[in-house]
Amino acid sequence: MSTDDAAIAVHGLGKRFGKVEAVTDLSFRVEPGEIFGFMGHNGAGKTTTLRMLLGLTRPTAGRASVLGHDVVTATLTVRQVSGYLPAAYALPPDMTAREFLHYVAAMFAIPRAVAVARAEALLGRFGLVEHADRKLRGFSTGMTQKVGLAQALINEPRVLFLDEPTSGLDPLARHDLLEHLRELAREQGVTVVFSSHILSDVETLCRHVAVLHHARLIACGEIAALKAEHGAMTMDQLYMALVRRQMP
Amino acid sequence: MIRLAYLDYRATLRERKTWLAAAMLAYAVLAVPILLENPPEHVREAIADWFGDADPFAVFMFVWIDLVMNKTVALLPVILGGGVLLRERDTGVLALLAAKPISMPRYFVLRTLSACAGSYPRTRAGARPTAASPLRSPSAQTPLQAGPRAG
Question: Which residues span the domain enclosing A92?
Answer without folding.
Answer: 8-246
